[in-house]
Write the structure tokens for this entry.
Amino acid sequence: MQGFYSKLDSSPSSSPLLGVGLGRDGAPVPLSLAVETEKAQALLQTFSSASLLASAGLGMFCVVADHALQLSVIQHHLWLRAALDNATHGLVGLWSWAVVIGLRKKSDLYEVLLAGLLASIIDLDHFYMAGSLSLKAAVSLPQRPPLHCSSLIPVLCLSLRFLMWIGRLKDAWCSLPWMLFISMATHHVRDAVRHGLWVCPFGNTAPLPYWLYVSTTATLPHLCSVLMYLTGTRDVISTKHGVAIDV
């Protein structure tokens, strides 16, 4: 997978003092136009062939993994079924974030692993709700645990963004709320095939059709990329740090 790499800050072809840059043919180009051109290229990379291929692979993985989980050898062992189901949540979250940011540096790998971890640990609220470490109690709850409420996704992401602003964290952390969004959203959409989405305070939706779950999971990374572009997160990542911002 190949990301879009921002070079505006370091490229010798641009000069903030002169307010101009050089085009591909060496002709001077206003710096503002060069910036807008790079932004447009970044947005187009969201739907590049490599990115679309990666998201198609994500959808195929969901189908294969879910069918594998239906094997009788897995269904007859509660711990094995729970472990593999949770691992699938983690891999879907990991893969989704990899589609969003691309993999060009070692730090990108750490981000992707963190996204997978976040997608997996959501299920710990089953044990919290059960008040026990018993897996049997955790999977037979009378109601859904708190972190499975889909209404919490925007609340938690916006709260995290606000706390980062209050704490004046470095721009390198600006994508963290979006990572949380991807991790939680992919987990909830996958669970919605069986239980629907729990939208507080309105209740549960009908279970999602399987095709809708797969297509939504495959397109969520692209939606996230577009939203990051519209909110300026990609500008901060690319122009401040010159990092890969898409696949």
User: Anything to note?
Assistant: The two ends are 5 Å apart (CA to CA).
